[in-house]
Design a protein that fits this description.
557 residues; sulfide:quinone oxidoreductase activity; BLH_phosphatase-like; globular; single chain; FAD/NAD(P)-binding domain; quinone; five-stranded mixed β-sheet; transit peptide; quinone binding; 3 domains; 27% helix; alpha/beta; Protein-Tyrosine Phosphatase, Chain A; seven-stranded mixed β-sheet
């Protein structure tokens, strides 16, 4: 007997015997549900034998037999009723546990999110992909068969999704493309560092989503609940089904604010801010502008995160503002990084270290933010240095800029498209899915080992577009992605260290050294960031104009 815990109050098992009852009792279970009909197998004990043994030790039992492959809606309702009325914790069993796990999943449809249900059953060893539509439909069998269908469906209308749609339309204007995204607005997120530094206005980083969806592309304003790649289907909230011939997945990352205890309750007040949110970036500048003394902490969580340089960009611009106002000497700056290096590509570190020294900032590596008490102005960090026990340290602050922990969205992590770590599993050169050959991914959610930046998506979108068009013509991939990403490190107002690199940390500069030497702070790079990149984003990338993003061709070997 193997007990598979789905949550604290419920577990499933394959067929049990009367001899297993004492162990079930010792494990703390107070009720057992049998979901296997008597006589299904020659070596199977009857329910009455199980019930008799259970009664002797004070365990209640319910017999709810389900024929394999025939879990009805009424069965799920009866199972839910039994779970509610029986004393917990409860264990259910059938031949393998699958029927019991299915009944539990359907019974929880209106109580938990689909992602939570799929994650819990997956962790217990059960794949509920076959009942996803029923779970989304409140645990009941859907009756709507009117599926919408498109040649290409794109999940996510962020930088990657809109750019991919525009690049495809520029190559084949007649394509039937749908973009699925519930958001009303679209943000130029690279601008938020500049908002937090007092350079950009927040409203200049936002547009209505409707104004950006390429002409002729259908916008489905809904959230995705699940994927059925074996059926070429995307399931939306409310159980609507969208079918596709080819799929592009690029919904961006989930900012997991709740992973830091107390953080959500204090964001935007008590001196706690973040440039990773549109509404909070102005508060960063408000805090910086008003600070004349005290301690300022800037945090960076474990990787991966979008724009890995953004946490230190906030530090540099803040310190520069204090330097210009003559109060830097009164401010104790700490950069608390969960990682062990200042920047992942060593060629840029010397230039950055000069600014760390200029601003007299303390670099605290292996410091991961785990809790905040805003009113008390205290934060706690787990310090996990190599080969030493984890130590929790307390730090007081007057201002704290937080970069939140980040993961793939829940509906991605539990999907058949994800790898073991929860990211879309693609070939890092062609960006095509490793298992489903009519699926591609780009942007922050896929598992290629590149920096997660808008600049990366700008280069990836044409690669995906080229390879999809080639696939539609019956050919193999023609374009490859070299891992390009760019991180304009704003080391002071008016100067930037322009980090541009690809897979393995290979430097991939866009300009000759005589124009911009990316390993040094330059005014030319600042001009690029402040004046040129916003229009390149709005008027180029999102319009299918692939400025500085010509796809690299795959060369025959």
């Amino acid at each position: 007997m193997n007990i598979h815990h789905i949550d604290k109050a419920f577990a499933v098992s394959e067929q049990i015997t009367p001899g297993d009852i004492p162990a079930i009792k010792d494990a703390g279970f107070r009720a057992i549900i049998c979901n296997r009909p008597d006589g299904e197998g020659a070596d199977q004990p009857t329910f009455n034998e199980i019930a008799k043994a259970a009664k002797k030790v004070g365990i209640e039992t319910v017999y709810q037999p389900i024929v394999a492959g025939k879990v009805g809606d009424e069965d799920a309702a009866a199972f839910d009723k039994a779970l509610t009325e029986l004393p917990g914790p409860t264990m259910a069993y059938c031949r393998t546990g699958t029927r019991s796990a299915t009944l539990w999943s359907l019974s929880q449809a209106e109580k938990r999110s689909l992602a939570d249900i799929l994650a819990a059953t997956k962790a217990a060893g059960y794949d509920m992909a076959g009942v996803v539509r029923r779970i989304v439909n409140g645990g009941k069998t859907p009756t709507d068969t009117g599926d919408a269908s498109y040649e290409i469906v794109i999940v996510g209308a962020g930088a990657g999704g809109i750019a991919a749609a525009a690049s495809l339309k520029s190559r084949k204007p007649g394509l039937e493309i749908a973009i699925i995204d519930p958001a009303d607005v679209h943000y130029y997120q690279p601008g938020w560092t500049m908002v937090g530094g007092g350079i950009f206005d927040a409203q200049d980083t936002v547009r209505t989503m409707g104004s950006l969806i390429p002409r002729g592309v259908h916008w489905i304003k809904s959230a995705v609940a699940a994927f059925e790649p074996q059926k070429n289907a995307v399931i939306l909230d409310g159980c609507r089904v969208v079918k596709y011939e080819r799929l592009i997945v690029c919904p961006g990352l989930k900012l997991d604010w709740h992973k830091v205890e107390g953080l959500v309750d204090t964001l935007g007040k008590n001196g706690v801010t973040s440039n990773y949110r549109y509404d909070l970036a102005p508060y960063t500048w408000e805090l910086v502008n008003g600070m004349t003394e005290g301690r300022a902490i800037f945090t960076q969580p474990p990787m991966p995160i979008k724009c890995a340089g953004a946490p230190q960009k906030a530090m540099y611009l803040s310190a520069d503002a204090w330097h210009r106002r003559g109060v830097l000497k009164n401010i104790d700056i700490h950069f608390n990084n969960a990682g062990g290096v200042l920047f992942g590509v060593k060629d840029y570190v010397p230039a950055l270290m000069k600014y760390v020294e200029k601003y007299n900032a303390h670099l605290n590596f292996f410091h991961n933010l785990v809790a905040v008490d805003g009113p008390a102005k205290k934060a706690w960090f787990d310090v996990a240095k190599p080969d030493t026990p984890v130590e929790r340290v307390e730090m007081e602050f007057d201002m704290m800029h937080v970069c939140p922990p980040q993961t793939a969205p829940d509906f991605i992590r539990v999907s058949p498209l994800a790898d073991a770590a929860g990211w879309i599993d693609v070939d890092q050169a062609t960006l095509r899915h490793k298992t489903y050959d009519n699926v591609w991914s780009l942007g922050d959610v896929m598992n290629a080992p590149n920096a997660k930046t808008a600049a990366a998506a700008r280069v990836q979108a044409p690669v995906v577009a080229e390879n999809i068009i080639a696939d539609m013509r019956g050919g193999s991939a023609v374009a490859q992605y070299n891992g390009y990403g760019s991180c304009p490190l704003t080391v002071e107002r008016g100067k930037i260290v322009l980090a541009e690199f690809g897979y393995g940390g290979t430097l991939l500069p866009s300009f000759p050294k005589a124009i911009i030497d990316g390993t040094k702070p330059t005014r030319a790079a600042w001009f690029l960031k402040e004046k040129l990149l916003p229009p390149v984003y709005w008027k180029g990338m999102l319009k299918g104009r692939e400025w500085m993003a010509k796809p690299e061709k795959i060369t025959a070997k």
